[in-house]
Amino acid sequence: MPGIWVYSEDNTLARQLLTAGQKLKETMGQPLGVIAISGEEIHAFIAAGADKVYVLQGENSWPESYAGAVADIISKEAASVLLIGGTLRGKDVAAKVAAKRKTGLVTDALTVKYANNRIETTRLVYGGLAVRTEAVSLPALVTIPPRTYAEAEPAADRQGEISTIDAANKDTRLEIRNVCPIVREAVDISTAQRIVCVGRGLAKKEDLAAVEKLVKAIGAEIGCTRGLSEDYHWLPNERYIGISGQKVKPELYISLGVSGQVQHVVGMRDSKLIVAVDTNEKAPIFAAADYGIVGDLYEVLPLLTEAMANK
Q1: How wide is the angle at C-alpha 292 spanned by C-alphas 290 and 298, nearest 5°?
Q2: CA–CA distance, 9 with 35 (Å, rounded to integer)
């Protein structure tokens, strides 16, 4: 029976994809399933809306080695849509599955809907300057970046079918003997709920101490533009927000001395509440902001910090 399927090696991302899958389920009238490479959260998937869960068991621990098994399942289930978590490994799997099944693939979709017997998606192009709408015939594969959708709300009384399948993904042609993870100097600000971002409006590195007071007052993380991390080296690259840096989606985003060039805005445009402070009333950041203060950050910052600290 045709259905809508979700796959990601990241269980949190898989639950986010279930939100997109539920919307397709409502319009397409087809069941919703999850393909997982571990059995740790099968009941959470069912509570979040999955009607069926396949758990892949293989001898190879690398997620990309499960592409063949994923392709076999969507073929067996005659899947109409496969939503894949848009991580680097997820995109690798998506490309392999699309090639095996000879189906259309759309990457980095921000919205997904069913219309005219096709899947229509939108995604950013030209560095965030434009939004492209694309339509792909069924069966369709779509990758969705992390945090594009909120996690599906669980329902305790839901029931679903669970199956375990041998992935047969052992491959002796390549042996990985050692893995050296990147040692990061900062926290992962992509998951922060509050962010204070500084740009070139900050005159010198020592002034970061004043920014840190506001960060502490509102329980936020500090972020920066590319210039402050890669040119000035005032903050680690992990805190740089933009098209080639971190993509953030906090509840509150405060920018201080950030002009708001498109390369930066692409990384923070999905923040729920954006507050901008800049001396240039024509700065592009104000077009993206919910609230704007035209003023010198050295005058606004102490007042804002005091107000938030006393709140």
Answers
A1: 140
A2: 9
Residues 6+ apart with CB under 8 A from 310: none
Between CA 1 and CA 169 the distance in angstroms is: 26
pTM, to two decimals:
0.78
- Tens of pLDDT, residue by residue over 45-90, are 999 999 999 999 888 878 888 899 999 999 999 999 999 999 999 9
Strands (E), the chain: 4-7, 32-36, 52-57, 81-85, 104-106, 111-115, 118-125, 130-137, 140-144, 161-166, 194-198, 221-224, 252-256, 273-278, 291-294
Q: What does the pLDDT look like over 187-211, one tens digit per residue?
A: 788 889 999 999 999 999 999 999 9
Instruction: Decide: 224 and 239 in contact? Cβ < 8 Å.
Output: yes
Q: Which helix (H) or strand (E) holds 19?
A: helix 11-28
Q: What are phi and psi for residue 111, nearest 5 degrees?
A: -135, 150
Residues 225, 197 contacting (CB under 8 angstroms): yes
* Residue of 25, 23, 22, 14 lying closest to 63 (CA atoms): 14
Q: How far apart are CA 37 and CA 34, in angstroms?
A: 10
How far apart, in Å, are the Cα atoms of 31 and each of 21, 139, 236?
9, 15, 45
Q: Which two tokens stand for residue 136?
A: 């792909």
Distance, CA of 64 to CA of 212 (rounded, Å)? 41
Using DSSP, state whether 27 is helix, strand or coil.
Answer: helix
Q: Quote the CA–CA distance of 99 and 211 in Å, as a whole number.
A: 49
Are the C-beta atoms of residues 140 and 119 closer than 8 Å to each other?
yes
Residues contacting 93, CB < 8 A, separation 6+? 7, 9, 63, 64, 66, 67, 70, 84
Both tokens of 36, joined, read 């997982």
